[in-house]
Design brief:
- This protein is an alpha+beta fold and 379 residues long.
- It folds into three domains: 259 residues, Rossmann fold (3-Layer(aba) Sandwich); 46 residues, Roll (SH3 type barrels), CATH 2.30.30; 45 residues, Roll (SH3 type barrels), CATH 2.30.30.140.
- The chain contains seven helices and 21 strands.
- The protein has a six-stranded mixed sheet with strand order 2-1-3-7-8-10, sandwiched between helices.
- Strand 5 and strand 6 form a beta hairpin.
- The longest helix has 16 residues.
- It is globular, with a radius of gyration of 21 Å.
- The N terminus is likely disordered.
Length: 379
């Protein structure tokens, strides 16, 4: 069975600290958004002082590969430049260029160049793995790059005070777990596609969430204050990963990192239903879960869960209903699939249709969050 994190972390997650919010004037638009002129936040992202180290490996020597066309990691780098991060402060290693030797050398050199007022943004996408001892690692083109090594390099070579860490791969939550063990001079904001105990799909839904955040998607701004902050982005990613990929993302804030750190300004939502998850009747007469992306004269522009944007459609409000993910009661007896076999277990918690289970006869070490398709209720 796969390794799992300790129960208190799986249930509680990280401790978050709220910060200040801005104030803005609004003017309604047909989409339900509003023109917004937010005041500058006390703790707001400064792209000009940001240094980005990114690694994207979607082709491997053994022939494993994702399509090169429409690479989300390439789009993410381009969006950072559009936000104002200087090209000279971005180092992006792709596929064959991301060998272990070259990556480690480039990372150390890159960190050493940064001034003391720099903020580090770290990103990885590709395969992730875990050792038998439970240590997470990023799978580079030719070898594994252990996550403790990544954090140790930052602690030794980075002169700045704040680092944002992102990873879209299996067991990526290990990045957050490792950051929680660090008590040095760096404060970390960590957001990853999965828990440290679970695999991640290859759909790159998580990186799409990061892109949506940087592009100022209004549905992420749940506080409706004209800014997308790190906490709001983490909540959006959690919902999207649970709804679309059947997994939970990881969010960690350590060493005084402000969870309300403002990333980008955006239009105020205007209509409170923007971003709401609903069930709606499609043109085929069937009901599907989706997310409201626009509102116009009693109709909703719906992004269907698990489908591409090309499938979006307008749905009348009368053909919608509240979406309530099926959640089992705490203590429910279930049978959970793992590696093709089913094991008796008990439900400890539920979130967004996912369930945290404890396997009968196994230590808490094996507790894990599971998607609905792996779980069978037991009468």
């Amino acid at each position: 069975m796969r390794n799992s994190t300790r129960r208190h972390f799986l249930i509680a997650g990280a401790t978050l600290i709220a910060g200040a919010v801005g104030v803005q004037a609004k003017q309604e638009t047909p989409s339900g958004a509003a023109v917004s002129v937010p005041q500058k936040r006390r703790n707001q992202w400064e792209p000009a002082k940001t240094w980005v180290f990114a690694v994207g490996v979607i082709q491997y020597p053994d022939g494993q590969a994702w399509p090169q066309e429409g690479r989300r990691d390439v789009e993410w780098i381009a969006q950072l430049k559009s936000c104002g991060v200087p090209a000279a402060q971005i180092l992006y290693l792709q596929d064959k260029a991301a060998t272990l030797s070259d990556t480690q050398k480039a990372f150390g050199t890159f960190l050493a160049k940064m001034p003391a007022d720099a903020m580090l943004w770290f990103y990885f996408t590709g395969h992730g793995t875990k050792s038998t001892g439970g240590t997470g690692a990023f799978v580079l083109y030719d070898n594994n790059w252990s996550i403790p090594t990544v954090l140790s390099t930052i602690e030794r070579r980075f002169a700045g005070k704040t680092a944002l860490l992102f990873a879209d791969c299996c067991y990526s939550g290990s990045l957050g777990m490792e950051a929680m063990l660090r008590a040095g001079h760096v404060s970390y904001g960590v957001l990853t596609s999965s828990l440290s105990s679970t695999v991640s799909t290859g759909a790159l839904t998580f990186t799409e969430c990061l892109l949506a955040g940087l592009r100022g998607a209004v549905q992420i701004d749940t506080e409706d204050d004209g800014f997308i902050d790190f906490l709001e982005l983490s909540r959006f990613a959690e919902r999207e990963m649970a709804m679309n990929d059947g997994q939970l993302s990881t969010f960690v804030a350590t060493n005084g990192f402000d969870a309300r750190f403002a990333l980008v300004p955006c239009l105020a939502r205007g209509n409170p239903r923007l971003g709401e998850y609903i069930e709606a009747k499609s043109k085929d007469g069937k009901w599907y879960p989706g997310r409201i992306e626009q509102v116009n004269n009693g109709a909703f522009w719906v992004r269907w869960v698990g489908y591409s944007e090309s499938e979006n459609e307008w749905v009348s409000e009368m053909n919608t209903r509240t979406y309530i993910p099926k959640q089992l009661a705490l203590g429910s007896k279930v049978s959970v699939e793992w590696n093709g076999k089913y094991y008796p277990a008990e439900v400890l918690a539920g979130r967004w249709g996912m369930h945290l289970v404890h396997y009968h006869g196994y230590e808490d070490f094996w507790d894990e969050w599971v998607a609905p398709n792996r779980l069978r209720p037991v009468a």
